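One-letter codes give the sequence; the fold follows as tokens. Both lines appear below.
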Amino acid sequence: MKELSVTRLDAAVVAAADIPALMDEAGVEFQKIDSLNWPDWPYRPEAAFRIAHTGDAILLHYVVSEEAVRAVAPEDNGRVWEDSCVEFFVSPADDGIYYNVECNCAGQLLIGGGEGRNGRSHAPQHTLDGVDRWASLGRAPFDTRAGQQTWQVALRVPVSAFFMHAAAPLDGRTMRANFYKCGDLLPRPHFLSWNAISLPRPDFHCPAFFGTLRFL
């Protein structure tokens, strides 16, 4: 299982649009999302993420290059996984509960919490509103656009987004997590992960295959 140290960035207020430049300045490195776990879905777009924190929020920056893009989901907690989508699944505690933070290329979010694929609870809208987002392609929904395109999204995810847990500072904490790139309704569907998954069919709801994040 992969392990990653998450650097603390001492910035009082961080807007999502400023995250890429802030990480550039701090030298935060990209990690590839390139595990092709299921050969029946062989397309591997270029996808990478980098992560840092500010004590009270996780900062995420994704960069993707793929042969078509799609952002149909019109609102939060919609079917963003069918679009050009990046995902962050994380277990903040050892109680069996994990969160799926899914974002399409237009910045629409889905956040769910629970102990398994079934019976998950969606984050309330006020929680989603607390996650600042920036998308290089803009925030308006759009249908499939063919042709190679590179896009980015950045998210500031406050600890309050873990709505089934009491908010706690990130400093010194260890969490288990995985990062994904998918697009179920793109011309070439794909299911990539940061930490490899050993299951017979595509399934991201598998905490047994989460890697480790150590917040410095």
User: Anything to note?
Assistant: The chain is about 5% helix and 45% strand.
